[in-house]
Amino acid sequence: MNDHPMLIAGGGIGGLAAALGLARQGMPVRLFEQAPAFEEVGAGLQMSPNGVRALKALGAWEAVEPACVIPSEIHMRDGRSGALLQRIRLGKTFEERFGAPYRVCHRADLLAGLVASARCNFAIELNTGRRVSGLDDSGEATRLDFADGTFAKGAGVIAADGIGSALRTAVAGEVAPTPRGVTLYRSLMPLQRVPPEIEADCVTLWVCPGAHVVHYPVSNWRNFNIVVAVDGTLPDEGWKTPAPAGEVTRRLPGVCEELALLLAAPAAWMRWPGVDLPALPRWSSGRVALLGDAAHATLPFLAQGAVMALEDAVVLSREIAGTPDLAAAFSAYERQRRERTARVQEQSRRQSRIYHASGAMAAARNLTLRLAGPSFALGRLEWIYRWTPEATG
Ligand SMILES: Cc1cc2nc3c(=O)[nH]c(=O)nc-3n(C[C@H](O)[C@H](O)[C@H](O)COP(=O)(O)OP(=O)(O)OC[C@H]3O[C@@H](n4cnc5c(N)ncnc54)[C@H](O)[C@@H]3O)c2cc1C
To answer: pTM for the full model?
Structure first.
């Protein structure tokens, strides 16, 4: 294995997870995050069993678990009538079926757990306030350039700089994120503000014509996370744009009383456009590899974006440990991850069409959910949830 450090661009979920994975394989790592501090922005995350397994393999589960919430059940409801369409229990039987638990947390809590784990590892150097501007892979060492005119040299580069990756072009050419005709809203409020009509200890998904709503408690029961997806595109104003007052309730007319009360409860909403990445021609080139959203950003409708970045980190670290040839390791990583992440992207797109159905299609969906029961729904998620760190995929 090369003694030079690995350089990681981006200190989000994927970059920090890759740093932990590589350090566990004995490789020194230098990570560069553009923000002045590890950013505590974002929304809630569903940590499905495959994500828990990835965190365990990275040695970070113990640091993340205390801030996670154990929801009692997942409920799917009709947003118009309020009717319960499906109920999935998340207790012992679920855990036995998938070999790991299901938790919910806030992105900030996951990030904090990863940062805490990285700070305990002397092989990892964390740098903030360092904006990566380019790279050069032609010399003996790989060079990462920064916006302030400085540079760093290392064995190779992992570009984990998110959906707007500055390094993606160097690997895959120009590929722009694609709007998928949906606007997303998120809000975080204290748990005490949740109307009593809402079952606050569950993960609940409300399906409505042209929209859906997901909510659950986060941050060790202190806060309540709500995400709303509505058909229709708005101009891309980034991830941190406040939504005008009343916009969410205006765009979800005709919902049942409980849901209307919940949507009126938050003091503020943020909004951002629903975009994902089309398939890239390649994820790696020489000693440079893309990871996480930089490679395969997905719509959040299967709740797998962060979890896929964690899985990437596990597979990438394993491949690097197995060979002194970094380019070969990156190619092997790409081969193993491409099909699975593409399937998550495709099913996430399809999921919004199912959730947002109206008329006869919505009636057929509701009937299927009621008749088929939770085992059918869980069966469709097995290929995602049963992933293990040993899997080649
Ligand atoms: C509403 C919503 C709900 C979601 N729910 C889930 C869920 O339930 N489960 C799930 O698994 N996923 C979920 N996701 C997806 C998840 O948040 C992302 O897919 C995941 O964070 C990807 O991690 P990443 O490290 O690749 O990118 P990011 O987390 O975006 O991190 C990229 C980092 O790189 C930094 N950076 C960018 N450019 C530069 C540069 N030039 N130089 C240095 N640093 C740079 C950024 O500041 C950032 O810190 C959800 C997403 C949304 C929007």
So the answer is: 0.96
